[in-house]
Design a protein that fits this description.
Blueprint (H helix, E strand, L loop, with lengths): L2 H36 L15 E5 L7 E5 L2 E7 L2 E5 L12 E3 L2 E3 L6 E3 L4 E3 L11 E4 L2 E4 L1
Amino acid sequence: MTSDEQVHTRRTVVIAGAGAVAAAAALTACTAEAKDDATPAANPAPDGRPSAAKVLAKTTDIPVGGGVILGDTVVTQPSAGTFVGLSPICTHAGCKVVRVSGGTIDCACHGSKFGLDGSVANGPAASPLAPKSIRVEGDSIIAG
């Protein structure tokens, strides 16, 4: 065997090895993707369609005339049985509101206060809190 034949053989082995690694990676990606597709949907709706509903709270968790900050949603109950979803981001400087107390949603950064419907009760914010879509299903408050 000449040195040219040995180099060619080494190249062939390296190229073949790289091809095998690429093929294994592609096969692994396809297998992982197939597993994701095979996962059953959580919380199917009563009509059998998949539901991506996220329960935020129970209706009893939200006080009448008050509210609760639940991660990326503020849920208030201005009057019995009326629930409002709002963004927790203050429209003045983008701070997150910190509490719902005394009938207002309060931002600690610059003192803005919002009504339970999201309207501005006290500046410096000039715009209301953005609405967030929520709905009530039975005794649960659902995001979206």
